[in-house]
Each structure stands twice: as structure tokens, then as C-alpha cells.
Amino acid sequence: MKKNIITVIFIVLAKLSFGQYQQYVQYVMPYLTDTIQSGFFYFNTPNNFQAGQLYQLYRQNAPDLNNNMVLIDQHVDSLAGLRHFKYQQTYMNIPIEGAGCIEHYNTDGSLLFINAKIADSIKSDAVPRISSEHAIKTVIKELKRNKEIVFAWEDEDWEKEIQTDYDDENATWYPTAELIWAIDTFKNIVLINSGERYNLAYKISISYAQPEFETFIYYVDANNGTILKFNSTRIYDGSADVYGYGSKVIDTQWKGGFTNKYILQTNDNTRVIHTKKDEGNETAWGLLQNVKDDDDNWGNAYLTETSTHYHVSSCWDFYRSYFGRTGQNNQSREIRVRTQIGQINAFFEPNGGSHNKLSFGYSDQNANLGTEPAVVGHEFTHGVTHHSSNLQYQYESGALNESYSDILGLVFQAGMYENWSTDWIIGNFVSMGSMLKRSLSNPNTLGSHIENNQYVLGQPDTYNGTWWYSGTGDAGGVHINSGVQNKWFYVLAHGENDWNDLNNYYDVDGIGIKKASKIAYYALTSILMNSSQYSDSRQATIQAAKILFGECSVEHQATIDAWYAVGIGNLNTCTYTASVNEVLDKEVAIYPNPTSNSLTIELPTATENPIQIFDIAGKLVKELNSNQTYFQADLSNMENGVYLIHFDFKGQKITKRIVIQK
């Protein structure tokens, strides 16, 4: 049976009886244009829904007002001009982790679709039995068992840094606690998630200064004080010479005072990037020495530092010029770059409200990771993800997080350095081992998966296929299962015909890396949620292709078929139905509009189905039955307002908008 998001919200949040459920199905049925697919609900257009209106209707009608959807973000995307409204689900005014929805409105104001993840029937008491300070001290006491740990608030240099960053002498790294409904794990997140999966908990951010600076999020049961789970906020992984690209103009700044030299800090008022050499110290930023040059002709004396600074600046430019995005958060948030960090790794890390951090160490063959553009683009994109969909770095959502960074990191290198050509490999520019590299064209040949608790060569390229990982290692396979979406992108952009691991044959013509990257970026930044799964990414990219290139366009069809190639969903079934609808829409005439008491209706062909009139709240107010192609409808008993008329010509649905003014 067709349902839509209003129905689901009423059932899930209000716990309606069977009779009420049927009532609401009838109430909202006219607005649904397709079946629910992985939490995506598609609406007939045009319509007159306003942002948040569905939830106001819910709160007016549902007997349980303890649940709500709270607006937390909105934006107009730069590629298509659609409006997107993001909501956080709450119960008893307490946020529910991973639960909420996003409304997407067309340029004409119509609600196109909603995607959602919903918590169902939380029954726990919303009153904590321990205080937030008790929870904080519980975590601190537990961590202090490790004598090597020094907290950031215990380190004078780190305390001075945060006070400087916030221009507040009272700022401190000492943690605060947020009361939330914490989900057990981000594995197997579906549309409707049982309330039994949630615990009332304090979410606490703890920052270490030693043995190295890092921030962890701890979840403490608000009733008994046990630590439920924890995770790191790190997501791993003038002119000057730039490694492999010769002499380039880099953006630097003159530093006067005691320095009187040029430093690696942008100075063009469009980018906010500052690069320093870490030397493996992980000391407070203010104590790190600037990389300095007397005359701004850097040459190759600081090849790693200048190369990394140049690549981060170029990635900023790439996102701005190609996607209309200004920095990682789209609001020019500062990026602090650390090179030579003394680890075989590179990672992105958010840092409160002042800046983000990109850190680049070495490959397993001692190459500087910051000198490869694709690696820099990968880490830069983690920051973009953090400030948009915020895909959780666990299980499928984490694999998607990794994959989008691989995809857009590779696209950055191809677009800004290689004239849009690519070998489809992340990590092929500097020396590194095969298991640190990743191949988008053939994931089985590079990267790693887990067998017998050991990492071995190769990633999966098919969902639930060979080497797909379902365990808890690698945060649920974030660096393993990312290969599936990587392969999807390659098939979409380049094209391929082959058999996948599920013994399904596919033959997809590529649409090119430029178009494919815009589909990926749009899905990542405007449609996906923090708890999205692979099935959601499929729906999101399909919608992105439809929005950017048109329904049943070559790009739309290829997006669907590329997902089939990696084992998710079916082949596209696009027909000319949309064109038929367009013809019918033009041939259906209603007048006068606005009207007062009667309406003349002219149809291209008689319809056996009743013509239905709904008010803007979705309530059926009148049905017209006629087997004629020309007739008049009596509207004298209807009140002033805006209404929608629905016509059904043997499955071809048309909606017209009328205004009654008396």
C-alpha cells in the first residue's frame, strides 16, 4: 500500500490505533506519487506545503505531543536552487541520535520529497538519575587509569590556545555533557528503528593533550553511569616548488614583528588556510613554529610544506569554482594544516567552533601524504561531509563517508591537475603500499579487507558480494566496504559492461566524470543524513541525477543502472510516462481560476476514476464523477481558499491548483 511520510510520522511518533492509521492513510494518500523507498517519500507536484507544515499538522492531530521534529538547518543548494530543511527528531525535547528527516522543495515552492530515519516508541524514562557532572567524572576517572593520558584542560599551553581561539579568557577544554537518546550502534539503521535501541545518555567530548592531541566522544548511561560507547572525532586516513608539478604560485602572508618573514598562511581574503610543520610533536598550535621564507621565493627548501599548502588551497578553489562552496563549512571556516605529523596516516578533525584541522603524515614507504593531491582532497572532503550530511564514521554510513572522500578527492586531482583525466587510483602519485591505495575502477586489486582477523589485499566491489564485511573491525568496515560505492562512481562516470558478484550482467554507458561528480556532491551535501545507509545513497544520487539532469535523462538512467552494477536495486524502468503526463497536463483545462461558485472542466479523454479535490492540508473535500470530457462542477458549498484537483487517467496522474474567492 502506498504511504507517505505524514503517515509514518503519525504512526511512529503518535503510536496511533489501527483505525486512526487507516484514517491518515486516506487523509494523505493523494499527495503520494511513488512507493516508499529506503525512507524516501515522493510527493505529487505542484503542492502548497510549507516547510515544517507536516509536523505542525502532526502536533495538532496526534494524541502524543512528546515527539517532535525540530528544524536544525536549512540551505538553498548552489547547483539547482532547491531549498532543503533538516530536522532533528526529539522525544521529551531530548534529541534522538541518528533520527530526523530532510524536506526538499522545488524552485516553484512544491515539496518534492522527504527522506527520514525515525525512532519508534521510546518508552524509557526521560529523567536522568545521575547528573551531567557525575557522568563527566565517571569518564575522567576511568580514563585516568591510563597514566599516559593528560587531558587538554590540564595542559597550560592547550588551555591558552582555546582561550585565544575564542577570544575568551574563561574558555576551557574541560568537557560539558549533552543529554540525548543514544542509539546502540549505527549498524542496520532503517526507516523505522525500535525504541528499544535507544538509551538516555550523556554525550561528552573529552580532549587529550598527551600522549597525542585527540578528541573522543563518550556516551554515559544517564541512569546507571556506565560507559555505553565511545569514538574518536578524527576521520583518518609567492612561488614555490610543488612535489611532482614544478614551480607554482602559492598564497602566503608577510608576518612582521619578531618574525619579519613570509609564512604559509593565505592572504587573498578568499581562503582561510594556515600551514605549519608539526614534526611529530602534536603540541598546541600556537607553540608550533611557522615555516618561514625571507623573500617569498620558496624554491624546494620546504617541498613538503609548500606542496601541502598549495594542494589544500587548490582544493578550496576547486570546491568554490566547481560546486559553489566556500570552504569546508561553506562559510570560510579556517583550516589549520599540520605536515609531517610523525604517523603513517592522514586525518581530518573538527575543532569546536573556531577551525578545522587537516593533518598529514607519511605513507608506509615514508612518502609525505600531503604531497598527493587526491589524498589532500580526500581529507578536505571529510570536512565537507562533517558540515553537511555528517555521515557517522561507523558501518555503512562510515563506508559512504570514506567513499565520498575517495570520489571527490580523485575528482579534485583530475580536475585541477590532470585536465580531467585519471587512472582511478587514490595513492598512485606518491610511493605507498598496495593496501593503502584504493582503486575506483577495480576495488578488488587495491585497498584491504579482513580475513581471519587479518587485513589482506582487495576491497569488495559488490554489495554483500565477495569480501563484503559485516563485522565490527575497522569501525564496521568503513575502509573496506567503501569500495562498493567507489565502483558505482567509476561505472557511472566511465561506463562498463561485466558480471558482478551476484551473477548479474550490467552494461552502462558512462556520463563522464564531471557530471558524475556533481551527482555525488549534490547527494552528499543536500540529501543524505548522518545515519544514511547504502540504500539511501542510491536513492539520494538517483534524486540528484533527476534534479540536475531531468527525469529519465541519460544521466538519471545511468545512475540507477550503475547501482545495479554493484548489487543495489534494479535496472532503470524509465519510459515516456513523464512526457505523457506533460501532454495531459496541457490538455486539461479548468476555468475560471480563481472562481467563486462553479468550475468548467475540459478533459482530453473521459476518466473512469473520480476527480478529487483536496484542501491544502490534504483533506478530501469533494469528489466529481463524470464520464464526459466537458462539464461544470458546482463549488458553491466550498469555502474560500487554495485547493488541488487530482485527475487520474488510467494511472497517469495530473494535479491542478485552483483558488476559490467569493
Biggest sheet features: 6 strands, mixed
Averaged pLDDT, please? 86
Classification by helices and strands: alpha+beta
CATH fold-level topology of the largest domain: Neutral Protease, domain 2
Helix content: 25-40%
Description:
With 662 residues, the chain is an alpha+beta fold. The protein folds into four domains: 5-119, Nuclear Transport Factor 2, Chain: A (Roll); 132-232; 239-272 and 295-337 and 364-565, Neutral Protease, domain 2; 577-660, Immunoglobulin-like (Sandwich). Helix content is 28%, strand content 28%. The protein contains 14 helices and 33 strands. The strands form ten sheets. Strands 1, 2, 3, 4, 5 and 8 form a six-stranded mixed β-sheet that branches. Strands 6, 7, 9, 10 and 11 form a five-stranded antiparallel β-sheet that branches. Strands 16-18-20-19 form a four-stranded mixed β-sheet, covered by helices on one side. The relative contact order is 0.08.
